Amino acid sequence: MENNAQGAVFGRRLWTLLAVSAAQLLVVLDGTIVNIALPSAQSALGMSDASRQWAITAYALAFGGLLLIGGRVSSALGHRRTFLIGLVGFAASSALGGAAVNPEMLFGARALQGVFAAALAPAGLSLLTTTFTETRERGRAFGVFAAVGAAGSALGLVAGGLLTEYASWRWCLYINVPVALLAVLGTTFVPRDQPVRDAGRLDVPGALLSASGFAAVVYGINEAEPLGWSSAKVLALLGGGVLLLAAFAAVEVRAPRPLLPMRVLLHRARAGAFVSITLMFVAMFGFYLFMSYYTQTILGYSPVQAGLTLIINALAALLGSTLIAGKLHGRVPPVALIVPGLLAAAAGMLILTRLTPDSSHVLPLYLVPALVLTGLGLGCVMPPTAILATADMRGHDIGAASAAYNASQQLGAALGTALLNTLAASATASYLATHRQATPDAASVHGYTTALTVAFAILLAAACLTAALTMTRGRRARTPAAQAPHSDQAEAEAEAAAEAEDGKRPAPRP
């Protein structure tokens, strides 16, 4: 009887991991797969050059702007129920986008995908947090979850290239339907969870401020690429977004049932997790952009060949998250995985900064080492940061922390793509202006290496900041307490007592 019970528990946990991983693949994959299909979709639907960006931006704005609300909804409805709603909605909106007959229909479908992804992502991470509570099992589960997330962007480029070239751009959206339905089937085996009883009414002012503030910042970052960072429109969007988010923080401090309790962000180790994953995504999404352009414009690879090259990065991320981070969780403090992971990714970027237009044997001497190091680094950073972000969280706070973690990734990806692409373009133009005899390829390589030098510096800064934030509190955060319900007041008092105690004695050994 005992063996049967243990087998049933193991089976439910396995189905939870598989379903959540499939959903994570959908959310991450959709951030890049449409990029490859966009030229074909533009031609088929008659999009203008000015409007085509909305196929990407509509998804990013809806996803990023509604994540915190999605986390609250997940707590109020129950994580499993919200997860199912997100999956079904994501599948339906993907099918709608694949069947689009005009640009407006496609843009609307992409926005709907973002809405359901904003519910799906925090609900999935919350399910993992509440299902896997034992230290070793949690490490393995989050290792698999992170591996899927780390590999998803690279796989999106591969899948986008293959589907666009050999099927149709529409299949870049249709492919989500069977994956989502398989995840729905797996979710039927996931144990039901109870909604948070004291969730209360939605914090409407906080919801409006967070959605509009985050959307303004993401949109401003996206507009910086074509318009430039000094554009009045970009500055207005970024400035307005920052002011709205500042107002959101002020409202949340006073709200009786805040959308994002400030204790989620003010915990030192959790803040370190948010900082490290945000800056890691800034650097990595700039890196993916470089790899796509460099391999196709300089090396002459086809889109499919360029995508397949990134499989090396995806495999390295898989190894880093499962065989290194997953196995070492609970045996070493999170900082011992996060900081080396950031430094490994920085080393990969540094290798590419040595590229010149005349470099020979580029694939074995430059690209493969860089892809392996950045993949291992990403794989070592994602599991411990995801665990730290949700450690010691209970009730509504689980959904809020999960949403904040996903929002950090979204913000980092948007900022990295726009910032590093702008830097590369500016450096290329400057090089051509000062080197009259330079070829376009030489100028482009100079632009790429300049941007990757900045990415290298960002990762070094991330390693320093993360070490400072997580070392003093890493031990406490790495072993989450049992997932028993307790009041928000009790958690706040415990946090205050811990902070006071930390001030009286030497910092514990991480």
Automatic annotation (TrEMBL):
PANTHER family: BLR6921 PROTEIN, MAJOR FACILITATOR SUPERFAMILY MULTIDRUG TRANSPORTER MFSC. The keyword Chaperone does not apply. InterPro entries: MFS, MFS_dom, MFS_trans_sf. Residues 477-510 are annotated as: Disordered. The chain crosses the membrane at residues 14-34, 54-71, 83-101, 107-129, 141-162, 168-190, 202-222, 234-251, 271-294, 306-325, 332-353, 365-390, 411-433, 445-469. Residues 490-500 have a biased composition (Acidic residues). It holds the Pfam family MFS_1. It is a multi-pass membrane protein. Keywords: Antibiotic resistance, Cell membrane, Membrane, Transmembrane, Transmembrane helix, Transport. Signal peptide: none annotated. Residues 16-478 form the Major facilitator superfamily (MFS) profile domain. It is found in: Cell membrane. This is MFS transporter. Residues 501-510 have a biased composition (Basic and acidic residues).
